[in-house]
Amino acid sequence: MWLACAALWLACAAAAWPQASPPLRVERIAEGVYWMQGGSGANTGVVIGRGEAAAIDAKTDAESARAMQAEIRKLTPNPVTTLILTHSDGDHVNGLAGFPRGLRIVAHGNTRKDMESAFSDPKMGGLLPYLPNETVEGSQRLNIGGVRIELLHFGPAHTQGDLVVYLPEKKVVFLGDLAFIGRDPLIHRHKNGTSLGLVRTLKEILALDAGTFIAGHAAPLKKADLQGLLSSIQEKQAKVRSLIQQGRSLEEVRTAFGAAPAPAAGGPRRPGFIEILYQDLGGK
Ligand SMILES: [Zn+2]
Fold first, then answer.
1. Rounded Cα gap, residues 10 and 263, in angstroms
2. Which of 16, 134, 176, 199 has a 20 to 30 A CA-CA distance from 240?
3. Which pairing describes strands 33-37 and 25-30: parallel, antiparallel, or unpaired?
4. 65 C-alpha to center of ligand 1: Å?
5. Quick check: 95 and 115 in contact, CB under 8 A?
């Protein structure tokens, strides 16, 4: 192995180090509103008001979070006073350690609970000072230097603590992971996510007066994209419901959707979307 490595030093070095994250790319979506992709973790947002700015989500690691702040400094001299978290997944919150301490960090109360349990792992202990210090239970309005932001919670969906970040004057919505394109929706059952709640939440989002929707892992979406997503979920729900009525087992339902067989029982396993639909629709 050593000789092979000596001969192929570059290839071995490349294999030994993690791939560098793609650089951050910033795009304006409305006056004073931007989204960023790249770095490590999910897409993030920036809202610039008079004398202050807010960021939406915080990347996966401190380095990317610092790169994100460097990009914000190119957009505005205003300090980031507020961080809004769409939910508790690591690719949205673990970069918090790259932000200065003492910021206002706003999230749903259930997101705070999920972060507390994740950060109680000793390996994550450095993040404990970054638990949200302002929690939302239903919905809440924020004012970031004159820019109105509505934080909306429509019940558990992707997780139990999803916040939809709606900028009514800008007609922009930040969705977190409530919408994926080109793959099945992601429901975190271990965070009390539910497909029925996702359908309800998508309907509420579609009722908002907005034209641009920023999801955590997609290019900017339009209402038609979300309508298509909702319809595809509803079609799958209808098919699963009728198979349950015919007395089909979970494995039969999964096969009907062409899903790969469930792995043999073993370690903890997260249910896929069809399994979630089956459970949520009362399959036994
Ligand atoms: Zn997520």
1. 37
2. 176
3. antiparallel
4. 17
5. no
Nearest to 149 by CA among 131, 127, 124, 174: 174
What spacing in Å lies between the alpha carbon of 177 and ligand 1's midpoint?
5
How many angstroms does the Cα of residue 209 sit away from the middle of ligand 1? Answer: 24
Q: What residue spans define the domains of the chain?
A: 21-259+269-280
Give strand ranges (E) for the chain: 25-30, 33-37, 44-48, 53-56, 80-84, 104-108, 134-136, 140-144, 147-152, 164-167, 172-176, 212-215
Distance between CA atoms of residues 23 and 59, nearest Å: 13
Cα Rg of the chain (Å, integer): 21
Residue 157 CA to ligand 1 center (angstroms) comes to 11
pLDDT, tens digit, 9 for 90 and up, residues 52-62 = 999 999 999 99
Which CATH architecture best describes the domain 21-259+269-280? 4-Layer Sandwich (3.60)
Cα distances (Å, whole numbers) of residue 96 to 90, 149, 215, 245: 10, 21, 19, 46
The Å distance, Cα 217 to ligand 1 centre, comes to 9
- What six digits make up the tokens of 194? 């539910």
DSSP string, 148-177: EEEEE--SSSSSTT--EEEETTTTEEEEET
Q: How far is the CA of 247 from the centre of ligand 1 (A)?
A: 33
What is the three-class DSSP state of 29? strand
CA of residue 6 to ligand 1 center, whole Å? 41
- Would you say the C-alpha torsion 256, 260, 265, 270 has a positive or negative sign? negative
Kindly report, residue by residue over 173-232, the tens digit of the pLDDT.
999 999 999 999 999 999 999 999 999 999 999 999 999 999 999 999 999 999 999 999
